[in-house]
Fold this protein.
Amino acid sequence: MDTMYTSAAPVSSTPAAAGPLRIAVLNGSTREGRFGPVVARWVMGRLAERDDMDGDLVDLVETPLPTVFPAFGGPAPEGAAELLAAVSPRLAAADGFVVVTPEYNRSFPAPLKNAIDWHHREWQAKPVTFVSYGGRSGGLRAVEQLRLVLAELDAATLRDTVSFQLSDGPFDADGHPVDPRADAAATSLLDQLAWWARALRSARRESPYTAAA
């Protein structure tokens, strides 16, 4: 199996035994004028309403990652360690992930792929769910591409998603979805994520995950 890069940042193999689930919300768009922060803030608001989850928003504009990878087995480029230190420990500490992604040309943004590729162990044996947005497809084609990538990293992607078609004007001026079904869908999505995150956290605690060679 080919792995682009495994972060040199320390990764704990012993998840917390109890307490709220730690959920990293990864905002994958960095383009100027992006809509992602509206969606990500909504997701964080839904997480804040729960007593079984703590959300951590990882915004790739605020925490950019290096775009030049080292040779296999070689040292990280100059300055890479500092950039990774702002992201890698947070992904490692997460019990599960919500990836917020737009759709660009039937796929997902390059900065999001870059963030995924800089990590490996941080994703392993953890659940990932998606909130997408875009044109007619609502970003679902980007999600399908992400499923393939994250399967290679031994992450467990959830079947259901929440998606928004931007042509419908899905959020009001206060950042709330105009369709009341969106909140219900988010509740269902996070309920599923909580189940998988608890189950896999317990499994990792009982037996550290080992990927196939």
